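Build the 3D complex.
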Amino acid sequence: MKIEIITIGDELLIGQITDTNAAWMARELTAEGFAVGAITTVGDAADDLLNAINHAFSRADILLLTGGVGPTRDDRTKETLCNYFGCGLILNNEVLQHVENLFSRRGITLNPLTRDQALVPELATVITNSVGTAPLLWFRKGEQLLVSMPGVPGEMRTAMREEIIPRLKRQFQVNSYLRRDYLVTGYSESALASHLALFEDQLPAPFSLAYLPSYGGILLRLSAWGEEHASAMDLQGCELRRLLGNNCITEGNKKAEELLGELLCGKQLNLSTAESCTGGYIAHLITSIPGASSWYMGSVIAYDNSVKKKLLKVKNETIETYGEVSREVAEQMVMGVATATETSCAIAVTGIMGPEGGTKEKPVGTVWIATLYREEIITRKYNVGNNRAQNIERTAGIAILQLLRMMQEDSFS
Amino acid sequence: MKIEIITIGDELLIGQITDTNAAWMARELTAEGFAVGAITTVGDAADDLLNAINHAFSRADILLLTGGVGPTRDDRTKETLCNYFGCGLILNNEVLQHVENLFSRRGITLNPLTRDQALVPELATVITNSVGTAPLLWFRKGEQLLVSMPGVPGEMRTAMREEIIPRLKRQFQVNSYLRRDYLVTGYSESALASHLALFEDQLPAPFSLAYLPSYGGILLRLSAWGEEHASAMDLQGCELRRLLGNNCITEGNKKAEELLGELLCGKQLNLSTAESCTGGYIAHLITSIPGASSWYMGSVIAYDNSVKKKLLKVKNETIETYGEVSREVAEQMVMGVATATETSCAIAVTGIMGPEGGTKEKPVGTVWIATLYREEIITRKYNVGNNRAQNIERTAGIAILQLLRMMQEDSFS
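Done.
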């Protein structure tokens, strides 16, 4: 049983926005036991959507569409579906009532364009969109199914979680997706593959091993479809874990910052951060974890040197002698933020993210990261590359891993 | 002349990562005058890629593939292309030399798996990948073209910018994509569409107007393909701008934080931020702008109340009387950070992002935002929703717009 996703909108084809809906849907569907076979993105033109539906239905049992259902003229999914299924539009009183309620609650007068959201294809089963005006449309085509949803992420997510996935699970047989993730450092991709060659040779058919280069290492994914392989997965996972040894930094689907939080909670320690070049991205990664407030105190983003001096007590002569991107400044920052926020652990970064600011001795991508864990400080230099956006992400990732590794090694000893 | 993009990898179909490559490529290609007709994502299975290539070539002149070219067994693009074009692999000495150089520079021994990266399809024109081991492969098929690139974003971006786009521009006739963006507030999507109905009625054929709901408003996009429509675009853009009046907050492709930076620079003012619930995301948006260091001083991420008190001088009794999510705390935070970092402008936010922490009076999504511009403070309450990740993004967006709007209105007066 195969699902395909079709995301709709010219804004995706001109790169105005990144399609985050498809990955979110794929993640939720996979977790619920539905395999996604392909994702297709088309623009607003009706013919392109028709073409995509025809092609996808030649392979898949279920098509999930998002986008093109707003009240404006550029949105044409509803008419295209009428065309595809050969039916007209009828007024749906429940949708009309819902739209009227939504607008009266917001104190806005209903206009004809929004009223038209209650015109639905005759052949569709209509499901109310609890958080928006465009209804969810559910079409049967023999044994196949097509569902149209809004492209606004919040509306799509609510629809998927509350309406679509529960219905799919009632109507279709699902399978289990078994998966183990390992973040591995200290190997190049090919060296790791060589190290694991014999393991891969013996890996039986339903299992696959995938290598995904990531900041700070390689993300290995061992996976198979089918609950019946659960005990084999335990054995294979155990053997793989043994082969990886201490090069395995994290195991499971958890992010490094989640693991860091768990370790800190377990040891009843707390954390602060001092960021220069990453400009708040480390704090953002950490505070994206629900419940981070129980172990994360806060951060000083010392973008300008005056803030480094004033709030982090970095000495003026240290900056003048060694430069703001230096071991010495990173160390004073990490001590400074731990003192200011009264935490036992801290992370500090200073570096040059580009495109400007590089020199011969300190090219763009030069980063110093200091991590404090109880009384000990580790300070390391990295070169993360030459693309500003990537440099920020990589540096943040590496900084979190540096502290995580430090705490893990303490646990080993 | 139509381009299609095919992104390859099981990690995309299980939602392990979000496909950021396709949007980046689409943006660059559109800007260079190439229209992207569709984007397809398939997994690592060879048959699925063959199917996608066949289907895409039935419509497009140029196919750009990313992914599946690493040295490990899960990567099968190269073999699949040999299969598709009916050719074998041959050793390419230039690629071998390049890979050997890359490894010797990093001080790593070359292993057989990486050496195999120098085996290339006989029928491909081979272009060296300056930042990685997998070569770029350029195949002609009559008048059509297929290019295979790595999926690692940094390698793909370098390849596109330095090699692929320049070659495409030499070989194909490009068109111009004309585009005007406007961020509009104070209207619902349908109310704005009603307001612009007559404008849309008269809009001639090559032009299209698209509505994209966004934080803080609706992003309107007026666009057309073809340099010959440039003067008509000026006229239509001017009329649209007139119809939008003061409801138009930003114009052009620039982000709100870029415009904020330009206004601050122009007035020789500087900015700091104090973030509680957004946990550094506002600072991250601002510091993602190259050159932000000339007007952005830094931030205090006061996640815990102790940091609000210690670094931002928020009074204990204010927190006890009004709660940490309140007008009074937001105002003390904005004053506190401006004082600590000696800035003339500041943004402060405090709120409840969820999933935990909501109460009946202050449900999840409640946010107070204070903005300081010279001597004036504006403080407003918002409700941003119930999804943590979205709440963080929305709050950050709204906060930046609140200050931008405040500065703009000062300029009008």
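The domain at 2-171 of chain A is CATH 3.40.980.10 (Molybdenum Cofactor Biosythetic Enzyme; Chain A).
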